[in-house]
């Protein structure tokens, strides 16, 4: 799911309470009860062989990894008719479906939305689902489970596991006489000097960015690097923590040092990050923090001359850190077939199904005469088995280093704490970063964001 979609979700959520009140979502009048048709179901109602129609929103599953898992579900539950509304999760579409009294049976969304939707009563607690289908929550990585847990109750089943490391254009570094190890986040002064040394411009036109801090999206990562927690354990916002302010100040300065935001953004927006003209291959951005899925994209650029390197992201004490992202399955209130939805979640994220997905990925790798770059899931047991069975030393040393760096990051990553105002907090800090990039002091930008987020948090708690 894209960051833009998460922001859209935050804006759309302003109407959730009104919509759910009008629709009667989760009430007895809307089908609530203990027959397995809504959030009041018992564990027994969730067990057994499901049948009927299963409507899914937000999941395409069109690649071999998705298709192999869909096939596994259909083989296990032939009496379930799967109806997918393909395309990524759309908050407005979801809320409209709720207000009309016709919600999907299952949604696939960014995990950071779970706290907000759970607080609004829009998605069901999965206590009975987990019990009824005997879902082993211990198979999932604790950080992923935490991100779908609100007030000690699980509201989602986590799927993929997205972490970040520094990806580096080794060819440009070699030409500049710079060791890839100098791309690091422990010593901020040194990183700033490295970025300046690598930066190139012609007149007012940027030719190469030395280090892209990837604002606005990576602000939570910079806050984490500096020891700040943007969301407290109780779900309240902590956006203007002094360490967060310092982190934003620094990351914005990196942009200012390299052409300023207007030129920087225009330069970055001109890239095709999915093709052979991506910035690492073309040498137009020397390094940036990037997620693990991107290695699959870059693999196709090896013939175009890409020389990849990678370094871990660390905090200022040198300990490896990463933000954690990924998707989750959740059952909306008022779902007509929660039993099938629960069976789907279990099947799609089980170790056996992930092994089938890895087998399908390996078949595609062999067909393409390529190499396996890993399959990063929230299921630790599956990840370990896939790594042991399929991951070998990559024929390209830079990619081998990157893959190993990503794997070394998995157990170091942490997600933002779930919050009843999670989507609104997300929107508030994004707006603050945009204002800071536009010239507003970081302290002022984050003070305003904190006020907005705190208002949303207090309102959510009152609701």
**Class derived from helix and strand content:** alpha/beta
Q: Classify the helix fraction into a percent range.
A: 40-55%
Radius of gyration: 23 Å
> What is the CATH class designation of the largest domain?
Alpha Beta
pLDDT < 50 stretches: 1-42
Summed over residues and divided by their number, the pLDDT gives a mean of 90
In terms of DSSP E residues, the strand content is 5-15%
CATH topology of the largest domain: D-Maltodextrin-Binding Protein, domain 2
Shape: globular
Q: How many structural domains does the protein architecture include?
A: 2
Beta-strand segment tally: 14
Largest sheet: 5 strands, mixed
Tell me the CATH superfamily of the largest domain. Answer: Periplasmic binding protein-like II
- How many DSSP helices? 21
Strand order in the sheet with the most strands: 2-1-3-13-6
> In the CATH classification, which architecture of the largest domain applies?
3-Layer(aba) Sandwich
Distance separating the two termini: 27 Å
InterPro entries: Bact_solute-bd_prot1, SBP
Biased composition (Basic and acidic residues): 448-463
Organism: Knoellia koreensis
Pfam family, one: SBP_bac_1
